[in-house]
Amino acid sequence: MITINLFPTPIYCNHIKLKKEYKDILISENYKRFEINNGYVTTNKYVLNNEKLSSLKKEIFNNLNEYLFNKLKVKKNTKFKMLNSWCIKHSTNDWSQAHYHENSFISGILYLKNYEDSGDLVFHKEGIPNIFSNCIKIEFDEFIIDNSETFFIKPKEGDLILFPSHLKHSVTKNLNKNDRYCCAFNFFPNGKFGNIDNSNFVEVI
């Protein structure tokens, strides 16, 4: 007997070596408190456009290409552009509510400064029924990846995670006395898609 993991949502995880100068540049950005009072965000929404971070940005794109072209088998002539990039700071007891990234295709997070208890990244199955619908709450003897409604990742400094932008995610409370920093970014396909003779043709600039 076998089971087939049909229509999965693939998440890309890799670890990169972060230079101290990159971390220092991103952490030293100007931050403002979120209106809902659960963390800080940079006022600059294009932090990776800094010329001093060009090598880091290139490495992120190399990982994006690995995810799209080698893992997901997207056609290699498909181009993606980085829409924006910003940093998040979570002080003690800060957290992030469940959300997804609008007006985006692929999103990513790079962890700049992180500790064992400074908050887990949580992905939520909400809106993506893969086995049972929510009309009846089925109980399970054991939670495994096939039946879980949430999936926790305990990130480490230098971890890079890429995922579809529609996938809801949140961050648990920072229980450490030190600030936690990460850099987030969004990507969108760029070019001509579909058959030019059909109504489904679109050009994204």
Quick description:
It contains two helices and twelve strands, in the order βαββαβββββββββ. It is mostly beta strands and 205 residues long.
Give a topology summary.
Layout: E1 12-15, H1 20-27, E2 31-33, E3 40-42, H2 54-71, E4 79-90, E5 96-99, E6 106-113, E7 121-124, E8 150-153, E9 159-164, E10 168-171, E11 180-193, E12 202-204
Antiparallel strand pairs: 1-9, 2-3, 3-4, 4-11, 5-10, 6-9, 6-11, 7-8, 7-10, 11-12
How many helix segments? 2
Over the alpha carbons, how many angstroms does the gyration radius reach? 19 Å
Tell me the overall shape. globular
Which structural class do the helices and strands define? mainly beta
Distance between the termini: 48 Å
Oligomer: single chain
Main beta sheet: strand number and arrangement?
8 strands, antiparallel
Helix content: 10-25%
What percentage of amino acids are in beta strands?
25-35%
Average pLDDT rating: 94
Element string (H = helix, E = strand): EHEEHEEEEEEEEE
Count every beta strand, where a strand is a DSSP E run of 2 or more residues: 12
Low-confidence stretches: none
